[in-house]
Specification:
About 5% of the residues have low confidence. The chain contains twelve helices and no strands. Helix 5 packs antiparallel against helix 7, helix 6 runs antiparallel to helix 8 and helix 8 runs antiparallel to helix 12. The protein has about 230 residues and is mostly helical.
Length: about 230
């Protein structure tokens, strides 16, 4: 859709909800921290002042973008045991966080303080309490959530608009491979973890899926051991 001329009346067909939708589209195509208010204003066909008039400063807009991205989350049913509940929840939340790069980083920095997330937090806390985590319940929830979301955020960072960031990453990978030629440790890392943070192929996507599942399962296993003590 071509941008509207910048001298168009700011109120003509433009609403805060539409601005958030357009910002969400920019995020899906790049990264939450990879576009500017100027980019958004150009996309909508208005000036930056019109954007801020409708939605406020960029920090407020980012809040609304992440809120919109996570709005359709549905918590797993509360009849699951805590381990399967968290497996289901952490794979469910990965879907929008991966679709909109940078939202995972935002959630880590600011917390999931949205009405759509509150039922998920309540249900997860209740599952941990029933399992017997007691005064460690909050720590257990935070560890499960943060470990998983941090994994997504780290993978997203290569997509941020930081000049030649993606090429820098590929150069680093190439250098490490050359340096580690015939080294068994390097070969193992290259086949697993490093591939998971490369760019752009079905092999990479599969490696990222495997690594994410491993992080979730390992965190759950550690907490199970803590519970057993």
């Amino acid at each position: 859709m071509p941008p509207r001329p910048t001298d168009a009346p700011y109120h003509l067909g433009l609403t805060p909800d539409r601005i958030v939708e357009e910002a969400l589209a920019l995020t899906e195509r790049s990264h939450l921290f990879g576009w500017s208010l100027r980019d958004l204003a150009h996309r909508v066909g208005v000036t930056v002042s019109v954007i801020t008039h409708h939605v406020g400063a960029k920090d407020r807009l980012l809040y609304r973008v992440v809120e919109k991205a996570l709005a359709d989350l549905v918590p797993p049913t509360d009849d699951l045991d805590w381990e399967n509940w968290f497996r289901a929840m952490l794979h469910e939340i990965r879907r929008p966080l991966r679709r909109y790069p940078g939202t995972a980083k935002w959630v880590l920095l600011h917390g999931p303080a949205f009405s759509s997330i509150m039922p998920m937090i309540d249900t997860g806390i209740a599952a941990l309490q029933r399992a017997g985590f007691g005064d460690k319940t909050g720590l257990a929830y935070a560890t499960l959530f943060n470990n998983a979301v941090m994994t997504i955020a780290f993978a997203d960072e290569r997509l941020a608009d930081q000049g030649d960031g993606s090429r820098d990453h590929e150069l680093m990978m190439s250098t490490l491979r050359q340096t580690g030629t015939d080294r068994p440790g390097m070969a193992t890392l290259d086949a697993t973890l490093m591939t998971a943070f490369s760019t752009g192929s079905s092999t990479v996507a599969q490696a990222q899926d495997t690594y994410y599942t491993f992080v979730v399962d390992t965190t759950i296993t550690g907490l199970r051991a803590l519970l057993g003590r």
